[in-house]
Amino acid sequence: MDQLLHGFIRALQLIVTFDPEVMEITGRTLAIALSSCIISTIICLPLGSLIHFKRFAGKRILVNVIQTFYSIPTVVVGLVVFLFFSRIGPLGVFNLMFTPTIMVIGQIILVSPIVLGLVIAALSGVDKGVFETASSLGASRFQATFQVIKEARFAIFSAVTMGFGRAISEVGLALMVGGNIRGFTRVITTAISLETAKGDIELSIALGIILIFMALLVNIVINRFQQK
Amino acid sequence: MKRILYFLVALLTVASLLAGCTTSSAMTTPKVRFRIATTTSLYDTGLWAYLEPKFEEYENEYQSEESGMPRVGVELDIIYAGTGAALNHGRNGNVDAVAVHDPDQEKTFVDEGWGIDKRSFAYNFFMIAGPSSDPAGIEGLAPADAFRKIAEEGTENPDEVKFVSRGDNSGTYGSEKRMWAAAGYDYANDVQGAEWYVEAGQGMAPTLVMANELNAYVLCDGGTFTVLKSQLLALVTLVKETSEQTLNVYSVYAINPDKIKTAKIDIAKDFINWLISPDVQEMIGDYGVKEFGGALFYPIADPTYPAIPNLADNMKPVQ
User: Fold this and answer.
1) pLDDT tens digits, one per residue of A94-146
2) Domain range spanning residue B65?
3) Which residue, of A103, A224, B10, B77, has the greatest Cβ tally within 10 A?
């Protein structure tokens, strides 16, 4: 019990004094998760619009498949990325194993189904009249689509936030393809898993608190947007 | 809408500030990244964290002297994994050198042509730790006898007597399997899957923590145990012997550039020669002595035990 209390106090000290290691790991975690979410959004927003607005056979099945991938295990993504990007793998020439870049790639694969699925759902939630009204007022297809996206912006933003939450909290992928290299690919989750094993409880608790705080922030954002 | 925008801007500012001031050096990488895969027992003692900046400093100075060019900025990246996994990182071409400790797997690695320029650089001894109550009564026995006793008592009373194994193709695991064989057991049939036998499938430190929680026996290297001792309240050293059987030698290999074209052989050679240089050998021997009250690793040339047969050849720099 003593150890726990002591660890907690030390952890708070680490946070309020902006301990360089804690800040560095937190910053990297944010940078990687934000990058993957932004890129994923850039991919998924047009793709989601396309799927939503186009009529084609098998659309239902496609959406079902996307939703199935919401809960794809992070280690499976890790395995796939590892197989492809290992230097003897088909994409090995890029020499990306154990870099932040590969972690971003992995996280994009991980969060894109969530962002894509929720973007489609968000667009479906917009009144069909919006598209028709815009069209009848002389908007091109592109402009009308843009109007619908604008209408669904809150739901889309909460979709991205959801993806962010998944990216920031995963550990399997980051460990497998990032390698948890100190000062290069170590993020909050991998640091916690290593330091807990090594017994540096204070650092673990400090990072854990920060991670929970981030989750809280994500939740607040989602709640706010869902009320709109 | 305005409030949301404010919130967003604030969030992004904080994030980018954090990211900007802390990771700019890590995210932009004009540096040369030299990667090694190392065993968890070396990593968990903190030895690599201690040596890493020293090698980077040495290599960068060395490079600028050699070429007269401005510093290139070699970054040493350390991936930790059990010996088996570390060697596979080498085979997959994801690292430029490996530092490992399993004679059998190393031999295969060299025979297959992956590993070259072997140099041993440190050693210590495996030991058996267990609960202080010592339910199987192994204290002071020879390792093979202790294993036999654990197996017998474990079969008899699996609730009281347990053994936690690495179970992960690491060097420690290899040594454990050899000890079971020496104790007269067929590992796959007699030991694996027994009720008293727990395969952790994790690194050295997590395995020790698990043994501590389960009140179990465990085979580990002396260095990692010394480092973690203060947290392993339930565990004490029960079998400690300096012998051929418990000897644990750490060796480093460069990855053969004929096999993996991208392997950074020049830096790997520098790295290997640096590890066996007298200064660094002394650092390895001194590491942790003050902090933990005893040596964690012996330099390979340490005269107290003849760790390798051809010491003179081993201390010659690779060409």
Assistant:
1) 889 999 999 999 999 999 999 999 999 999 999 989 999 999 999 998 999 99
2) 31-124+249-314
3) A103
Q: Which residues sit opposite B198 in a β-bridge?
A: B164
Contact A27 B22 (CB under 8 A): yes
Contact residues on chain B for A184, CB-CB shorter than 8 A? 26, 33, 75, 77
Contact B262 A225 (CB under 8 A): no
Which tokens go with A147? 């109007």
B205 closest CB neighbour out of A28, A198, A224 = A198
Residues B224 and B139 in one domain: yes
Domain range spanning residue A100? 2-227
Please, which residues 90-119 of chain B have a Cβ atom closer than 8 Å to chain A? Answer: 91-94
Q: B39 with B73, same domain?
A: yes
Which one, of A104, A115, A73, A112, lies nearest residue A174 by Cα? A104
pLDDT at B72: 67
pLDDT score of B15: 55
ipTM of the shown complex: 0.75
CA dihedral of B254, B259, B263, B264, whole degrees rounded to 10: 60
Q: Residue A84: closest CA among chain B residues belongs to which residue?
A: B92
> Which stretches of chain B drop beneath a pLDDT of 50?
20-29
Q: Is B157 left (phi over 0), alpha (psi -120 to 50) or beta?
A: beta
- DSSP letter assigned to residue A137: T
Instruction: DSSP for B17-32, please give it.
Output: HHHHHHHHHHHS--SE
Residue of B nearest to A101 (CA): B27
pTM for the structure as a whole = 0.83
Instruction: Please report the pLDDT score of residue B20 as a whole number.
Output: 47
Domain boundary pick from B240, B267, B298: B240
Task: List CB contacts (< 8 A) between A34 and chain B.
Answer: 15, 19
The count of CB pairs under 8 A between chains A and B is: 91
pLDDT of residue A70: 93
